[in-house]
Amino acid sequence: MHPQLPSHLAQGSATDRRLNSLLRHIDPSIASSSLSSMDSQISASPTSGFHGDSVFAHVVQAPEDSILGVTVAYNKDPSPIKLNLGVGAYRTEEGKPVVLNVVRRAEQLLVNDRSRVKEYLPIVGLADFNKLSAKLIFGADSPAIQENRVTTVQCLSGTGSLRVGAEFLGRHYHERTIYIPQPTWGNHPKIFNLGGLSVKYYRYYDPATWGLHFQGLLEDLGSAPSGAIVLLHACAHNPTGVDPTLEQWGQIRQLMRSKGLLPFFDSAYQANAQSVRMFVADGGECLVAQSYAKNMGLYGERVGALSIVCKNANVASRVESQLKLVIRPMFSNPPIHGASIVATILKDRNMYDEWTVELKAMADRIISMRHKLFEALCARGTPGDWSHIIKQIGMFTFTGLNSEQVAFMTKEYHIYMTSDGRISMAGLSSKTVPHLADAIHAAVTRVG
Amino acid sequence: MWRRCLWRRGISSSAAGWWDHVGAAPKDPILGVTEAFLADTSPRKINLGVGAYRDDEGRPVVLQCVRGAETKLAGSQFLESLPNAVNTKLVEESVQLVYGKETDIVQERRFAGIQALSGTGACRLFAEFQRRFYPESPIYLPVPTWSNHHNIWRDAQVPVRTFRYYHPDSKGLYFGALMDDIKSAPDNSFFLLHPCAHNPTGVDPNEEQWREISHEFKVKNHFPFFDMAYQGLASGDIDTDSKAIKIFREDGHLIGCAQSFTKIMGLYGHRVGCLSILSVDENQAIAVRSQLQQIARAMYSSPPVHGSLLVSTILGDSQLKALWEEEVKAMVARIIRMRAKLRESLEKLDSPLNWEHITNQVGMFCFSGLSPEYVDHLARKFHIYMTRDGRISMAGVTTSNVDYLANAIHEVTRFGQEDSSQRRSFNAFIPHISYAN
């Protein structure tokens, strides 16, 4: 015996039919008194809902990313003298983001080519891009490339390359620990943890000398278990700007090969790196994550590549097939635009040369900012040795300022940087150097 | 075994490599079809594998509205990642598209939205988010579903369960079983639903059935996650195709939704999508979004801007948007014409089988019912490529190849045993979870 529909609902209508079919699913043994309590649940009105709470009501606000959070705070600041030295994105003397001329040219070529389509790339990405990226980092005459021992897959900039590499290692490599330098880019431990690896640190930066803690590095890598993965910044270490010398790289290589440690290079800042080539030259294996974000100003297009150098071509091919299984459930296939721009530039001799010229101009401007800041601090007689500003390499300076001093500079001088004292030199100009020098001077003399 | 290898590693050049044990992975069942097609040298070859639209000459299409957007954008944008500005605009346009501009959800900002790497990326972000906050919960996937759904939730380490959806005999919705499975799942389960143009079957619930499903979800307190990959490409109308979502919204469900612009705007290579999760209020939305951003940050930091600029330019410009809607209608019209032609040709050949489902099914795909053996035969003998579950991408059918296709299908099936082969094909199709090693 089916429960009766309440009379006010018993008209022929779509809602009626709906209610009838719903009632058919209801246990016929339900008494009519229970039915009236169900009236409140089953209503004919299409807009009455069951407004329960979200199943994600318990989700708490995640902390701001410490690097990107700097820009958020900067944007909120109304001060006209504010300065953003947070994220490592290149700026001109006028403080404007840059699109390289050669990139604009490449983009125009692509837009004008009406035969171009927007089909899916293969899972591993644009073939030309992959080949050219491998040649760029390893050298066109690299035996590893000649012997087809390298597999290269297009990924989403450096982050994406690191993540895909981490996931691959988590599945196929017997060691699940990666050693990363102290300090390192803030996103590294998160990428590796979420990618399935656990993270340990090796000593790298020596605050006493503002330079490399080479002894500590050798000791820590020397005591790592055989086979452990080691993250190496190929050059222009982020955040410190402190790089090993070529000789020191040689020693690191020897140590790592003797202990069977697996090198995982993060090459975020420079097109080629002698450190990487040194490791590949000894015939051993390694992983390399490449990014075109900074060296081609393609930040927003997320262009990068992961290369795995293997013992032989057969292994490289099988490794590639497994990389596809990591990529497919992550994003299926990579974005076409940025990689097409890079490939267009790298394969054309003139454009390639034009790019190296623009790259040098960017690097030169940064070096000039280093010198100007150093001179400004010397001129003010700011206590301390500031020569590390001109010794460190790449986009960042690890000032040595502590978090209290940083907070002071933000509050009093509206200067934004990460709390570890890292400043992006690319965010400076001749006009703003004096302001920064004043701020550093004040921080060092007034704050502990 | 490892110790021996490692000890020899000191002499690096002669030692065994790290990856000798790594086996060759099987090819992706969908993308592998295109590879096989490309390798085929026959002039008659047809690719009915991957769901990418083709015009009647079999050529890929860049939509006019996309060209218009590109011209508008050329030379103007900065290529630096502008995570806030570009991402926000894309998300705004996306949620308006799927939920409706005037709805309370959009007006009151009760959604956590984040740009994602197309549909795959949006599903993956959600799967990771689900794992983070409901670590024990499985996801219920329909049988069948897009094969990559299994890979996505598995890689996010979310256990996968299935619910019945398609009935191979009727080639329609297995509604009774579907409702039973919804009811017998534990309360508060996570379900993945295709809001329109189900992939691979093309079989969708009707409005009444959606209402029943929505009601049962409320009774069971299930979480509905929609994978919206074909808004506009099912019926030709954007709003009609989001009806299921509207029904669930009216019932008060706080759904999750993955959106893809890949097929609906022909932006395959650009990887543009959006994930949204509805919330009770804006504060909750902000909290959820912050978590999604963290997950994305550790995966790829931020999504590529070019494609999302194209999408938000088109949706934000009334002329371009109107043009887009016209072009979507035209794509759907061509696909429907091809469905009609294919069915007509097969019936003219006096095929012993029933081909009604070709015109009953909706969207880009036809779930033909062809067994894996027939599929292989079609590839070998006729150079016609489709996935082994018998899914045909109708977009790959043209006026000039439809007769050849019909003839080929007729040839391989004319003497076959329909029921058992189709049942075999259906069972063979149920995806096995692990491809690993």
UniProtKB/TrEMBL annotation, chain A:
Domain Aminotransferase class I/classII large residue range list: 81-440
Keyword tags: Aminotransferase, Pyridoxal phosphate, Transferase
Cellular component, GO, one term: mitochondrion
Cofactor(s), by name: pyridoxal 5'-phosphate
EC number from the UniProt entry: 2.6.1.1
InterPro entries named among the record's database cross-references: Aminotransferase_I/II_large, Asp_trans, NHTrfase_class1_PyrdxlP-BS, PyrdxlP-dep_Trfase, PyrdxlP-dep_Trfase_major, PyrdxlP-dep_Trfase_small
Pfam entry (one): Aminotran_1_2
Domain of life (superkingdom): Eukaryota
Gene Ontology molecular function: any one: L-aspartate:2-oxoglutarate aminotransferase activity
Coiled coil: none
Catalytic activity: L-aspartate + 2-oxoglutarate = oxaloacetate + L-glutamate
One BP annotation, GO: amino acid metabolic process
Key word Transferase present: yes
Xref: Gene3D superfamilies: Aspartate Aminotransferase, domain 1, Type I PLP-dependent aspartate aminotransferase-like (Major domain)
Additional notes on this entry: In eukaryotes there are cytoplasmic, mitochondrial and chloroplastic isozymes.
Family: Belongs to the class-I pyridoxal-phosphate-dependent aminotransferase family.
Self-association and partners: Homodimer.
Protein's UniProt name: Aspartate aminotransferase
Organism, as annotated: Actinidia chinensis var. chinensis (Chinese soft-hair kiwi)
Lineage start: Eukaryota, Viridiplantae, Streptophyta, Embryophyta, Tracheophyta
From TrEMBL, chain B:
Keywords: Aminotransferase, Pyridoxal phosphate, Transferase
Cofactor or coenzyme needed: pyridoxal 5'-phosphate
First-tier enzyme category under EC: transferase
Alphabetical list of InterPro entries matching this protein: Aminotransferase_I/II_large, Asp_trans, NHTrfase_class1_PyrdxlP-BS, PyrdxlP-dep_Trfase, PyrdxlP-dep_Trfase_major, PyrdxlP-dep_Trfase_small
E.C. code: 2.6.1.1
A Pfam cross-reference name: Aminotran_1_2
Residue ranges of domain Aminotransferase class I/classII large in the record: 44-409
Keyword Protein biosynthesis: no
Molecular function (Gene Ontology), one example: pyridoxal phosphate binding
GO biological process: amino acid metabolic process
Catalytic activity of the protein: L-aspartate + 2-oxoglutarate = oxaloacetate + L-glutamate
GO CC annotations, alphabetized: mitochondrion
Top-level taxon: Eukaryota
Note: In eukaryotes there are cytoplasmic, mitochondrial and chloroplastic isozymes.
Subunit-structure text: Homodimer.
UniProt record similarity statement: Belongs to the class-I pyridoxal-phosphate-dependent aminotransferase family.
Name the record gives this protein: Aspartate aminotransferase
Naturally occurring in which organism (per UniProt): Actinidia chinensis var. chinensis (Chinese soft-hair kiwi)
